[in-house]
Write the structure tokens for this entry.
Amino acid sequence: MVDPLDLEPEEAAPHGLGTSLPSADARAKAEGTFPYASDLWAEGLLWAAILRSPHPHARIVSIDTSAAADLPGVRAVVTHADVPGEATYGRTVADRPVFASDLVRHHGEAIAAVAADHPDTARLAAAAIAVEYEVLEPVTDPEKAFAAEALHPDGNLIRHIPLRFGDADATGEVVVEGLYRIGRQDPAPIGAEAGLAVPRPDGGVEIYTASTDPHTDRDLAAACFGLAPEQVKVVVTGVPGATGDREDPGFQIPLGLLALRTGCPVKLTATREESFLGHAHRHPTLLRYRHHADAEGRLVKVEAQILLDAGAYADASSESLAAAVSFACGPYVVPHAFIEGWAVRTNNPPSGHVRGEGAMQVCAAYEAQMDKLAAKLGLDPVEVRLRNVLATGDILPTGQTVTCPAPVAELLAAVRDFPLPSLPMDTPEEDWLLPGGPEGAGEPGAVRRGVGYAVGMVHMLGAEGADEVSTATVKVQDGVATVICAAVDTGSGFATLARQIVQETLGLEEVHVASVDTDQPPAGPATHGRHTWVSGGAVERAAKMVRTQLLQPLAHKFGMSTELLQITDGKITSYDGVLSTTVTEAMDGKELWATAQCRPHPTEPLDESGQGDAFVGLAFCAIRAVVDVDIELGSVRVVEMAVAQDVGRVLNPAQLSARIEAGVTQGVGAALTENLRTARGLLRHPDFTGYALPTSLDAPDIRLVKLVEERDVVAPFGAKPASAVPVVTSPAAVASAVRAATGRPINRLPIRPQAAVGAAPA
């Protein structure tokens, strides 16, 4: 296969929508020359360090910074007393202090920050700050948070959603119940979290960092600095990929304070331990379920209780809870549903945005329930699911009608019918990779193979009345187009998609995407695949406006409408061949530009009964997992994941495949290895030794069985987000397969070895 990066200009790769256009920065990243945030530098640079609490819950009696300030090379020490503006911040609820003042509410909470002329000096100075604590009993069990003393002035309950749908007295002939626990998954960004703050002559500050939502970060920082938003500029630089909030403002705000205090550029590169302590994680969740069905396996009623551990602060917990409650029944038709959902504060590490938040946790639970239902009825697990799947026109338990394509049955049938991988006995010439790895300690006779299924769903864009809007500008001069849009490409491929949209619309090959900063109009956060839809839609509209500006003079000159002209490979031609010119000649040295917005149709908050049209659209996925389980050791190897996904439209085949494969692999991590463990609120082993990410040996063969291209008519290009729904679905599929292999219930993620030990011999 020819690498598009190696093609000469005359052999240029195909471009436009539907082609596998490579990322513009792919070569730099592959060769190690791409400048990430941790590579930033400035003249007169100082280094920052943050002092963090060693306790999950404590009262601060006193803070003495004198020893730190007296160290040679230390330029500034700041605490809560030095915050000139708002003392707290938060993207949804401003409940998180910049620096703890009276109480520490989680392990690793920021107490003070230091700027010094050398990173070692900064770390020594931070360690020299004397803090006297009165250690308090932490509240780490979310079930006990309801009755515990308030951990925050706002109380321990962040949100309660009671969903009521149908008849509470309805019952089924068959009832299955389960209790499920989902662990704390970390977004685990591989690149270091880093930033640089540079003071400005006007008294403001510029912050260079890998932000995923620069305008919100700017506004939060400006409020804490006591400055107007226009005095703070956030420049997005070197994003190495994000599966949640890439840069917590808890890193950025102290940087800016130190730069303003010292009048010098200040840089912070977080250690891996600091990243684990500082940024938000997936919500640990406790779920209780009861499913009612008739004798044929058709669902009658679902009852559930869902408890999200938000950690110390609210962050995205309200949004995550809404997704969990709304999708608690899964992509199935349920006539009656009664769901109770709570998100509570504890003294555990903070929880927030991670791909598929809320939806992933409930998927693991409702799919376990479907397996139980199949076993109790003696039915095939796929058949039980097929008898209940959603389709377009069905109604969610929130009362919202599914108006987008919902090919759930087609997806499930596709993975069911895909050939299973060979058993080792069928290919004796190949070494059998045991669940323990290439040199697995187990014996082949103890290995059982299991096949499991899961279907999942996520919502697209924001929810519950979120104002989803993005603005983009497209400029064309001398045959070269430039896209200006504050949508951050976190690995979603938006920058590549923007180039393809302009190539498709204007017929130009050379398209550049400008770097992102807050001098540009806002585009919103890089979550829920929203930039493909909202920002991509804005780019398309702006490009079409430029196209009209370009073609109208020619159409008027030749007495025809612009619809009769087309642009291909930089050339403008008419339908009859009378007109043929180049884009450069038609522009005659002019610069054309247009700015446009895209704003999807509005949604509404869930009401007091959990009812409302809360979501713009939905995406679905079905996965069949094949696993080998050593029932003596409890080790699990995922052999294959067969994926069928509802994608709307394939805009970039290579990019789409990579996104799905990455999502599946992240889900495998959540199923088997990724659990940020705590002991009485203290993080244990906050590093990549104690927190096990899947390696290349853990990643299974991923087969993209079917990509259903049924376009959503209300979405630009008809495309749907790609990466979140496989993350949501794959942990449930792996658990289902381990359940099938062992006969054990598997009611906790990640799956612990002892849960897979002791199955009856085959």
